[in-house]
Amino acid sequence: MTMIIALHLGAYVIVAADKRETYQVNGEVVSILIDDVQKLIEWHGGVATGSGYVPLLSDFKVRLSKSDVSSTNQIIEIARECFLGLPQEQAGWIKYTNWLFTYTTDAPQGLGMV
Fold first, then answer.
1. What is the per-residue pLDDT across 47-104, written as a single tens digit (0 to 9) for each?
2. Measured between alpha carbons, how far is 84 from 43 in angstroms, rounded to an integer?
3. What DSSP designation does 94 have?
4. What is the distance between the alpha carbons of residues 16 and 6, in angstroms, rounded to a whole number?
5. Burial class (CB in 10 A: 0-12, 13-18, 19+), 48
């Protein structure tokens, strides 16, 4: 299960995510796939992340990292293309997959990600 935390603090937004991918059957964790996955993906205007079906999210991260994105509409289209690329028997996983997108702006101290 993915843990994503996003806090809106007025002039700032803090986004954090765990680094674990698991394999679940009927809602129960069967195995831990990896403990060092990068769930926050930088795009030209901010950060994107998601929770849910790992193959769908992995495809999304690869496509996003290779794209010249300038708006969230393009990110939504990449997510849609990834969903449409799933085999029909896996299409139901979209109900359990969620996305989070943020924008960054310039500040006197510059942009930053921890």
1. 888 888 888 888 988 898 888 888 888 988 999 999 999 999 888 888 889 888 887 7
2. 22
3. G
4. 7
5. buried
